[in-house]
Amino acid sequence: MLFVRYPSAALCILALLAPSCLHSQTAPAHFTPEPHGTDSPIIAKKSADTPDFSWYREIVSRIPPMKVDRGAVPPMITWEGFGYDPLTAEQYRELLARGFAQNLHLDEKLIPAALAMQAAGSPVILMQGGGGAFPSDQAGDTSVWTHQFEAGYKPTEGARPCLSITLGWAKEADHIRGTLRRFKEAGVTVNGVWMDWEGDPLYGKDRYDQAIHCTRCRALLPARALANRAAFEAFCRRRFVELIGAYLAAPVLEIFPGCSVTNWNAMVSTPDRKLTDWDYDVIDPSMPAFFTHTNPSAYGDTTWWRLWKPEYRNDQEHVDRFWMYQLIRQPSDEAVNRLKWMPEKTTLPWVARWLPEHDKYQLPVMSRSRYRELLRHLWLRGATGMQVFNPKFKGYEQMAVFEVEDAAAVYREMMAFHELIEKGEPINLKYPGVQDAAPLWSGLRNGNRAVFRVFSPTQGKTDVTVTVWPDVILKVKADSSGATYTVERNGAAIKVSKPK
User: Fold this and answer.
1) What is the pLDDT of residue 204?
2) Which residue from 67, 209, 329, 366 has the least number of CB within 10 angstroms?
3) Three-state SS for 56?
4) Spatial distance between the Cα atoms of 85 and 62, rounded to a whole number of angstroms
5) What is the DSSP pairing of strand 472-478 with strand 3-5?
6) What is the DSSP secondary structure assignment for residue 364, as one 8-state letter?
7) CB of 448 within 8 A of CB of 489?
């Protein structure tokens, strides 16, 4: 049963559980749900030898084309994918039909590929990584940009960039401007720059020790930034966000004002709701200026798995609950902050079900069916695009294929609501605790239209109360299969639809 509470004398239910325009939630032919046993959580199995592995062939052969329009929602990109050489127009269209685009590096040598993509109707999205001392090291001689240590001090790691020197950042910003101008002069419109810069001053075990022993830092940085380790690490986080905004996002928007721009870990963190990173390290308050989108992560990785506690029941269902909590937490908390403090921005999360950092391949894995459930809820919590982190580990290539296959299946399903994904606002960002059996629901609304989904990890049906609008409250039954509903209102009339 589905109940509606709508405080109006003119209440009229036009349709209840009627057939809708939603696609069936049946999985593609290649999808094999993994078992929810009571004893042994899923562990990744080695793939058969695939010396001639081809991402294009895998995606086109395993994933059916979509039957719905994606509207203005960008196609997804993958970490590993389709190379950087121009593909044929047919290949670009085949990828788009499955929800994907080839992504390119910010390199003028790739202008021919960008032109080929654009001619085939694919948006041009640039993505590449950068870490370590980049882009500080673009300043040239190390004496220009590294710490100037006081006599007698020897760092335990290599000398890091001095936080007061931005010459390398400025040079990289000029490089970005120049490269994008050449794209533009060639007739390319760059639609997205979704980067993965994650170097200094973001990380480093000895970064505080180096800074307090640097004569230049002591002379140029605010004293409060060097007062203690906690103050310095908070300063480093803010400094990183400031630098990537000024020297990455701003130059992109100078050349392509309509471009979407984000960078890994560009997120809204506030004193009221501080986000947490790996190992629950607190992300100090920061606001990503200039970026059009934030970039939280939903990674089923080794670092998060360290937070598993021995008292948790060690079966697949409880492993799934653990991962659902870990993967939905950061995108949801970030959305709360963003909607309050920077509501003009939307979000483009990175997603990955299985990420065995440090070669920890025996990492217990979230089941594919539960991971797909997670992805649905991320779309219904404000994601306006998605980046699939699918590194291909030798001997486990099939796991990387599953990442892409699962993301594509959910993308195909959720594009039935592309107008709400483009313009809607999330209507619920709460989530169950790490081992809770409580139901989960998410949704979007815009004007007089809404979509929401309910799910319960328990057997049987559970009542869920869904507030679609303040004056429209629905009570629905949730089960472990999950269900999606659309809602339309016309004055006092409410129409609720659900797939068969």
Assistant:
1) 79
2) 67
3) helix
4) 23
5) antiparallel
6) B
7) yes
SS3 234: helix
Q: What is the pLDDT of residue 36?
A: 54
Nearest CA-CA partner of 407 in 388, 432, 381, 431: 388
Spatial separation of the C-alpha atoms in residues 335 and 429, rounded to whole Å? 8
- CA 418 from chain center: how many Å? 17
3-state secondary structure at position 230: helix
Distance CA 305, CA 227 (A): 34
Work out the average pLDDT over 75-91.
95
Tokens of 159: 């000398």
Each residue of 447-468: pLDDT tens digit?
A: 999 999 999 999 899 999 999 9
The vertex-323 CA angle with 264 and 73, nearest 5°, equals 45
- Which residue's entry shows tokens 């679609």? 468
315-345 residue pLDDT tens: 999 999 999 999 999 999 999 999 999 999 9
In terms of C-beta density within 10 A (0-12 exposed, 13-18 middle, 19 or more buried), how is residue 29 classed?
A: exposed
- pLDDT of amino acid 158: 87
The predicted-structure confidence for 348-369, as pLDDT tens digits, reads as follows 999 999 999 888 999 999 999 9
Q: HSE-up of 272 (CA within 13 Å, CB side)?
A: 8
Say if CB 111 and CB 186 are below 8 A apart: yes
Query: Count of H helices and E strands in the chain?
Result: 14, 22
Pairing of strands 449-455, 483-490: antiparallel
Report d(CA 155, CA 451) in Å as an integer. 55
Whether the ω angle into residue 201 lies within 30 degrees of 0, i.e. cis, is: yes
- Amino acid letter for position 124: V
Give residue-wise pLDDT tens across range 13-61: 333 333 333 333 444 446 666 765 556 899 998 876 666 788 999 899 9
Answer for the pair 55, 364: CB distance below 8 angstroms, yes or no: no
Q: Is the four-CA dihedral 418, 421, 423, 424 of positive or negative sign?
A: positive
Cα distance from N-terminal residue to C-terminal residue, the chain: 14
- 100, 388, 443, 472 from 400: Cα distances, Å: 15, 10, 29, 42
How large is the angle between the packed helices 89-97 and 111-119, nearest 10 degrees? 70
Which one, of 389, 386, 280, 283, lies nearest residue 334 by Cα? 283
Q: Report the C-alpha gap between 492 and 447 in whole angstroms.
A: 14
- In 3D space, the residue among 433, 450, 453 whose CA is nearest the CA of residue 490 turns out to be 450
Tell me if the pTM is above 0.90.
Answer: yes
Taking 80 as the threshold, does the pLDDT of residue 12 lie above it? no
Of the ranges 136-140, 240-244, 417-421, 490-494, which one carries the lowest mean pLDDT score?
490-494
Picking from 374, 376, 382, the residue whose alpha carbon sits closest to that of residue 340 is 382
| Residue (of 39, 45, 19, 92) closest to 361 by Cα position | 45
Residue 159 exposed, middle or buried by CB count within 10 Å (0-12, 13-18, 19+): middle
